[in-house]
Design a protein that fits this description.
Elements lengths: L1 H25 L3 H65 L3 H71 L5 H30 L6 H39 L5
Helix pairs in contact: 1-2, 1-3, 1-5, 2-3, 3-4, 3-5, 4-5
Length: 253
């Protein structure tokens, strides 16, 4: 995801240069303004990279904390079970009457049942914590994908705007228009992939298995990354076709 977002921002920079080429000669201040805009985009790219890295680190750290807390609790319950067995054996050996032995057995049985209840509660809490972490992780990833889609749509609109300007000047833009049409189709496929992540997030309930959700999420993320990368490459081809059209300056027949 980090690579896809950075590539989209890079494409935005490339398009900005293509759109502004004629304006630079007409307005000597335009170059400085474009440089400021490019610097802002570079800063945004760095921020997105940093945010994505922080999310990954936070998720990994939180997952580790949940697992360690659960393991500590299970270890405590195992130790209590061991001590219970030792105490029961000692008390049973020291019991003087059958009634005392029955009372010891009954007490030990109740203690074991309580430990079992605590163990199940700990397991349920661990599963709930992992589900909540998965929700947060998916939500953060979904937001990054949505931002990437917004950038794709924005670049496509800017390409369309430039095509319109060139057509008004009589430049042949058929190749650029065809490339942009393919790019829009690729963006549509990327949008469907991101929608699948959104649907998964909405479907997670308290009964969901965290491991299964995590596996399905990883699969959907790979698909979304691939589709966004394909959309980015399609837009890059559209930008190249646009530059070729402008450089030829060949009037439409």
């Amino acid at each position: 995801m980090r690579t896809s977002v950075a590539a989209i921002l890079g494409l935005s920079l490339l398009l900005a240069g293509s759109v502004a080429l004629a304006q630079e000669r007409a307005d000597p201040q335009f170059l400085a303004e474009r440089e400021r805009t490019m610097q802002q985009l570079r800063l945004e790219r760095e921020r997105l990279r940093a945010d994505a890295e922080l999310v990954r680190e936070d998720v990994a750290n939180e997952r580790q904390r949940i697992l360690e807390t659960a393991a500590d609790r299970q270890g405590t319950l195992q130790e209590r079970t061991r001590l219970l067995q030792e105490t029961q054996r000692e008390r049973f050996e020291q019991a003087a009457t059958p009634e005392e032995r029955r009372a010891i057995l009954q007490s030990a049985q109740e203690a074991r049942e309580n430990i079992q209840l605590e163990r199940r509660a700990a397991q349920q809490e661990r599963a709930a914590n992992l589900r909540e972490l998965a929700r947060r992780h998916m939500g953060a990833a979904l937001q990054r994908f949505m931002h990437a889609l917004d950038r794709l749509y924005s670049v496509a609109e800017r390409i369309q705007s430039r095509i319109t300007i060139l057509k008004e000047r009589g430049v042949q833009t058929d190749a650029a228009e065809a490339a942009l049409s393919s790019a829009r189709a690729a963006i549509g496929e990327a949008s469907e992939s991101v929608a699948a992540i959104s649907a998964l997030l909405a479907s997670v309930t308290d009964a969901s298995d965290a491991g299964s959700v995590r596996q399905e999420f990883a699969l959907l993320v790979r698909e979304a990354n691939a589709s966004i990368k394909a959309a980015h490459e399609a837009l890059r081809r559209a930008v190249q076709a646009l530059k070729d059209a402008r450089s030829s300056e060949r009037p439409a027949q």
